[in-house]
Amino acid sequence: MVSQKSVSIDIHIVDMTRNENARPVADEYGVNYTCINSYETDNKIEQVAIARDRGIQKTNGRYVLFLDDDDEIQANGIRMLLEAIESGDCSVAFARKRDLLDPEAIREFYTGENPIDPDTVLEFCLSALAAPYGISGMLAERSAIESLLPMADFPHDDIVPVIELVRSNKVCTIDRELITSRSGYGLSRSVDCKAARMAIVEYYDELYDAYPDTVRKRGLALKHAIGALKCLQQSRWSAHAVRHFWKAVRTNPDGSPYGLVFASLFGRYGLRSYKSRFPSPSGFNWPV
C-alpha cells in the first residue's frame, strides 16, 4: 500500500489478532493503527466483518479500499481503480484477483463493458452462493460502503456485501489481475464460511423471486452440498451429510448424479474417491 503511485492515501491497519501482532508494521511505516482486543463471537467470518466496520469508523476519506493482510495490490492498482470509477461514472470498482473460482467461470464479469449488468452478477451470486468479485482490493465511494454498515450483521463477510453493492450502485471492473494473495484459500474452506454461505439462501429469499426458479433451485442444491461437506469436515462419517447430498441431488435442476449420494455413505473416503473419478459430474458443480 505504501508504494501506491499517483494517489494520496491514508492507511489504517486494523489488527484482528487481539495481541497487537501488527503494531511493529504500523510503527515501521508510520501508519494509523487499531487493535481489536476482544470479540463477542468466535466466528471468524463475523470477526472479519467487525474489523472492516471498525476500519470505516476510523477513517474519513472519500474512497475506501479494504486489503486483507495476505493480499497485495500492484503499485498502480488504486490509481487504475480510481480511473475506472471516474471514467465509468460509477461508485465501485473491482479488478481480477487470483482467487478460488475458476477464471473461465467468472471471465464474463470482467469484460470492461462498464457499468456492469447487475442482474447477470446477482443471478450468478444467488446460483453459486459465491461472488465473482472480492471485497479485498475493491475501491468504493465511502457513501456506498457506509450504506452497508454494520457489515457484521450480514451472514457472509464477502458475498453479501458484493450483492448489496451491485444492487444499489453502478459498478465497473478492470480486466487485469491487480490483486494477488499469498495464503490460498484462507477462511473460505472453514466451517464458519460454509455455514455463512448456506445462510445466504434464506437471507435473500425475496430476492430469489425476481429470477427464474432454476436460480433458487441451484442455490438450494449448492446449500445442501455445502452442508454435506461441512458435516464431513467435522466428522469422518455423517448421516446428515448423506441426507444433505440426497437433497442436493434431488433439488439440482441441471442433473442428478445419484452416485454422489452412494459415495457419501462411505464418508470422507467415499466422497474423495468419487470426486477423483468424477471431478465434474453431469449437471453438478462442486462447491468451492
From TrEMBL:
Record domain Glycosyltransferase 2-like: where: 9-95
InterPro entries per the UniProt record, alphabetical: Glyco_trans_2-like (IPR001173), Nucleotide-diphossugar_trans (IPR029044)
Pfam families assigned: Glycos_transf_2
Domain of life: Archaea
Gene3D superfamilies hit by this protein: Spore Coat Polysaccharide Biosynthesis Protein SpsA, Chain A
Protein known as: Glycosyltransferase 2-like domain-containing protein
Biological source species: Natrinema saccharevitans
Lineage: Archaea, Methanobacteriati, Methanobacteriota, Stenosarchaea group, Halobacteria
